[in-house]
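Annotated sample (chain length 275).
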Amino acid sequence: MKIKRYTVLFILFIGTAALIVSCSKEAREKVVVKGSTTVLPITQKAAEAFYEKNKIVISLSGTGSGDGIKSLIDGSCDIANSSREMHTEELALAKRKGEIIKEIAIAFDMIVPIVHPSNPVSNLTLHQLKAIYEGSVKNWKDVGGKDETIVIISRDSSSGTFEVWESKVMNHVEVRKDALLQASNGAILQTVSQNPKAIGYVGYGYLNDRVKPLYVNNVEPIIENGKSGKYPIARKLYMYVNEVKIKPAAQAFIDFMLSDEGQSIVKEAGFIPVK
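Output written by the structure step:
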């Protein structure tokens, strides 16, 4: 008996991340997913498992929550990944175009401040984080560290992670003008891992031993504290769809994300399941 073989190829470009799935002619449909780089690791793992079960191609790009939502509204994607809730003006635009947007929470996440492993600082309060990022604290010695200038690493304004940070940490005060802006969690991780003076912030699922995660308000960034709400910089992660135009294949992928297997993938990717 001849055995058919299928090859799944994943190519990931950080910043303008793209997931390209190569498949045999038996693949029936393609689902286009755009948006948050935070949700990207979850969707990447889920796309591979979903393809193995259904032979449906997931075309995935990570260019920021705002871009994903814009693409959903203009019809250039089937699912928008987002690490923030849709804005009122985005919902209003969709409504004017006759679209019905549905919000699906697929996971919980924590935004974790990170420093270089050599940095002696282990805990910062929300007040200290705000002071560092707005520029009123510029030296590590003022928060228990070495006598060194703090290098600020932040996300660009199209990022859902930035918007949550701006709301929960900055109270909508502007970040320092000399902050180094990065387009993705991965870029922030790499920059901080190479600079002993730097501080940045990433989604919990991106943490690794190349950086040091900080406690916030003396609360450790671990799954239990994120799920309970004890950790002060927590949020939901979303997938948005247009119910007027949703493909059966896109709905099947959403259903898969909320299934026991999909939620196990959420946990494997380093995030907190909603179920």
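Annotation: Residues 41 and 269 are 6 Å apart (CA to CA).
Annotation: The radius of gyration is 20 Å.
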